[in-house]
Amino acid sequence: MQEIRLTPTSYIVLGLLEFAGECTPYGLKQLVSSSVGNFWTLHHAQLYTEPERLTKAGLVSEKRERGGRRRRLYEITPKGREALDEWRGEATGSLGELREPALLKLFFGADPGALARAQLPAHRAKLAEYEAIRDGMPELVPDGPRLALEAGISHERRSIEFWEELAG
Amino acid sequence: MQEIRLTPTSYIVLGLLEFAGECTPYGLKQLVSSSVGNFWTLHHAQLYTEPERLTKAGLVSEKRERGGRRRRLYEITPKGREALDEWRGEATGSLGELREPALLKLFFGADPGALARAQLPAHRAKLAEYEAIRDGMPELVPDGPRLALEAGISHERRSIEFWEELAG
DNA sequence: CCTATCATGTAATCCGTTACATGATTAT
DNA sequence: ATAATCATGTAACGGATTACATGATAGG
Questions:
Q1: A92 at the B interface (CB within 8 A)?
Q2: Rounded alpha-carbon distances, angstroms, from residue B30 to B13, B42, B102
Q3: Phi and psi for B91 in degrees, rounded to 5?
């Protein structure tokens, strides 16, 4: 049992395991790409290493299948739930950063019109994707994902407005 | 002379050196925190290691003071300008990610009201800071930083609207 | 004079990314 | 059958973060 630092990646894995129950790394990958991956990308390799890290800290437990591929099955432990609850409970006042590569280029003198014309289709596509997800969402989806999706939608709308002003 | 991968950090250093001319790591730190650092944070250690990396690739040149502290002085080279221009010239269509820690918590079930009440003051403070910078901006500031600042302002406004809906 | 804080730098760690690899399934 | 894609994993690398450290300057 070892002390580890918990990163956003850790909480994503814990949160998904809480939601889904027992799960393989590949299962986690599927979950990510259909949910939180829309605004917080993880690489598939992290879904192998992170549960292992969490296992060392006792926050998840690991089993292996007997036959066949002997895949790893992970499950959140009570201690893991506790850590997740604590994290959820601390209402953070810290802000993320924009970190838009396009804004960086703009800042350092790239041509605004050209940038805008490259950014607009991408933002519009992302917006369409979000709206499709929202429209296909079953009623029973909890508030969290629903609200996060709304945040994504309004963010894309704002970005589109911004770049539209700069497009020639 | 060595091949290195250029990251956003690299372009920030190159861009600042282009703007400021010869500069020490500490000078870069000052520049960052009064400009691009508003939406793209760097740790001060990176401003020591990154110019060194760029030196290996011939994109910046390094001199050392003779007397006193023998501080390092960096300057962008023609090859560095070239790399910077090329980067600025490619109008990227790739999107950054939101990566707001608060959104992540929201997604995984944190209490929206509590989160909103923690996020609102922070976003309002950031907005006020941006507006103060804009209002104090001399006329001669180039369009890039000015537009990036506008993006930051509209982003903060939108975030405030979003969280206001969730605050009880 | 003493102690904060600013200025300046190095070193270690660690997480995230990239690259490499191969076994299963499905489609043609 | 064979190619393509899905599923599953490991290993190496490198950049970002954190921690450590010390010299200068200013304030009390």
A1: yes
A2: 12, 11, 29
A3: -75, 105
Among A167, A55, A66, smallest CA distance to A122 is for A167
> Cα–Cα distance between A146 and A139 in angstroms, integer?
10
Average predicted confidence (pLDDT) for chain B: 94
Identify which of A88, A80, A44 has the alpha carbon closest to the alpha carbon of residue B103: A88
Match 């011939």 to its residue by tokens: B58
For A64, the enclosing helix (H) or strand (E) is strand A60-64
Q: What's the average model confidence in pLDDT over B63-73?
A: 77
CA A55 and chain centroid, separation: 21
| Shortest Cα–Cα distance, A86 to chain B (Å) | 10
User: Which stretch of A113-117, B54-58, B67-71 has the lowest confidence by average pLDDT?
Assistant: B67-71
The pTM (predicted TM-score) of the whole model is 0.94
- CA-to-CA dists, residue A116 to A87, A112, A137, B60, B108, angstroms: 38, 6, 31, 30, 33
Residue A72, both tokens: 């790893």
Percentage of residues of chain A with pLDDT beyond 70: 98
Q: What is the pLDDT of residue A70?
A: 75
Q: How far apart are CA A17 and CA A21, in angstroms?
A: 5
Helix (H) or strand (E) segment spanning residue A31: helix A25-33
* pLDDT tens, position by position, A127-152: 999 999 999 999 999 999 999 999 99
A-contacting residues of B 43-82, CB under 8 Å? none
Give yes or no for A12 touching B (CB within 8 A): yes
Q: Which of B162, B20, B105 is nearest to A93 (CA)?
A: B105
Instruction: Measure, in angstroms, how far nucleotide C22 C1' is from residue A53 CA.
Output: 24
The three-class DSSP label of residue A96 is coil
Look up residue A137 and give its two tokens: 């969402």
pLDDT at A148: 97
- Write out the DSSP string of B31-90: HHHTTGGGTS---TTHHHHHHHHHHHTTSEEEEE-SSTT--EEEEE-HHHHHHHHHHHHS
